[in-house]
Amino acid sequence: MSVLWTSDDAVAATGGRATRAFEVNGVSIDTRTIQPGDLFVALQAARDGHDFVAQALEKGAGAALVSRVPDGVGDDAPLLIVDDVLGALERLGAAARARVRGKVVAVTGSVGKTSTKEMLRAMLAPQGATHAAEASYNNHWGVPLTLARMPADTDFAVIEIGMNHPGEIGPLARLARPDVAMITTIAPAHLAAFDDISGIAREKSAIFEGLVDGGAAVFHGDLETTPILADAWNGTALSFGEGDANSVRVDDIRLLDGDATARVTVDGAAYPVRLSTSGRHFLTNAAGCLAVAQLLGVDMTRAAADLSRWDPPSGRGARGTVQLPLGGTLDLIDDAFNANPTSMSAALEVLAAARPEGSGRRVAILGDMLELGEDERAIHAGLAALPWFATIDVVHTVGPLMSGLHNALAPKTAGVHVETAEEMRSMLGTLVVSGDIVLVKGSKGSKVSVLVDAIRQLGQPLPDKKL
């Protein structure tokens, strides 16, 4: 494995002091997943990372980034001692960005950041050495960590940038210094921290503040807040969406049972796109990815074809089949990682388009959408107006906010309502049956992911469906 950082390079980047020479080939903040040869970063979080340095070194860490010599660590230990660990990690990330001659793409948005980041990874990897964030490493430590892990010979990097409060995106974007910055969409997420959705749009558009000279912006062109995004950048920009005015247009959308197809037109050329999962929102973001590809100058025909290599990760719309112990199967759509009104509508549209076998039903298990501000109860009740409920057979709801939707649904559609996911866990054997297609959707804090696990435990999960 090639060397990622030598002690001399790390000292020059961070301004720290090395206790001895070292070479590392990775960067880690977690002793549970650390690999031999990693640089262990002793961040201060719920626990002080200095308490785990000895363990990291015992597991083969090549060195540790610390602000003091931890207890239990010998005088001969390979340490990089700095004034502040997080600040040093940021400087390490900045140095990694400075030495890369490839192209960097940054992605943000209220919905779809991680799935779009993974689409871009799948699309770009066949055309060059591609580096992308793990999981949802998109915050004040996740972005510099992703950058610090970036090999010097990277051709394409994809950096995910998120936020919970105003003022978070701009500094991270300036650290990443993207060549192309993409905003997937603007939706009422984290409204508790903003006055209105316009405030969210302005915060998301701060990603353009980090663009390098000659950089380009990509944003959703069909939104009420699109003018805010367009006004935030005066340079090269491409909009994407279904509207005719978009630079990159997606049409002929077909949501199938388990996959989805569309046509994306870029600079007068039409490219067929097929995704291995269903969802209008996924196809729209695929169009955004092709806008990025156009700006990067890669082979567009190959990029469009390689989007089919993308699969949604667990908790973000992945679909699988569960073999039930008494015979038969059910299909499970796991979308339990996050939720807001926009993503909830998109997920329900996918369920409505699904085709159960035999006497199977379309079943939704919906948990609370969190951080929506003072109108949160009205927003939950308002979901009942979505047209997809006309096709969905039964909707079970979890959480105090989802009681509003439960009460607003037609009696034939409203299923069981409980206050917590744990209460519903023991009921699942009677709430879902063979032949059903079951969507589980909710904010992470609603803990409906435990229901995904419980459904899988009803029987034996089979490989995810591929068409």
From TrEMBL:
Primary localization class, coarse: cytoplasm
Binding site for ATP: G109, S110, V111, G112, K113, T114, S115
Keywords: ATP-binding, Cell cycle, Cell division, Cell shape, Cell wall biogenesis/degradation, Cytoplasm, Ligase, Nucleotide-binding, Peptidoglycan synthesis
Keyword Transcription regulation: no
The protein's role, per its UniProt record: Involved in cell wall formation. Catalyzes the final step in the synthesis of UDP-N-acetylmuramoyl-pentapeptide, the precursor of murein.
Family the UniProt entry places it in: Belongs to the MurCDEF family. MurF subfamily.
Annotated PANTHER family: UDP-N-ACETYLMURAMOYL-TRIPEPTIDE--D-ALANYL-D-ALANINE LIGASE
Record-level Gene Ontology MF annotations: ligase activity
Catalytic reactions on record: D-alanyl-D-alanine + UDP-N-acetyl-alpha-D-muramoyl-L-alanyl-gamma-D-glutamyl-meso-2,6-diaminopimelate + ATP = UDP-N-acetyl-alpha-D-muramoyl-L-alanyl-gamma-D-glutamyl-meso-2,6-diaminopimeloyl-D-alanyl-D-alanine + ADP + phosphate + H(+)
Record-linked InterPro entries: Mur-like_cat_sf (IPR036565), Mur_ligase_C (IPR004101), Mur_ligase_C_dom_sf (IPR036615), Mur_ligase_cen (IPR013221), Mur_ligase_N (IPR000713), MurCDEF_CellWall_CoF430Synth (IPR051046), MurE/MurF_N (IPR035911), UDP-N-AcMur_synth (IPR005863)
SUPFAM superfamilies per record: MurD-like peptide ligases, catalytic domain, MurD-like peptide ligases, peptide-binding domain, MurE/MurF N-terminal domain
Record domain Mur ligase central: where: 107-293
Protein name: UDP-N-acetylmuramoyl-tripeptide--D-alanyl-D-alanine ligase
Domain Mur ligase N-terminal catalytic: 23-70
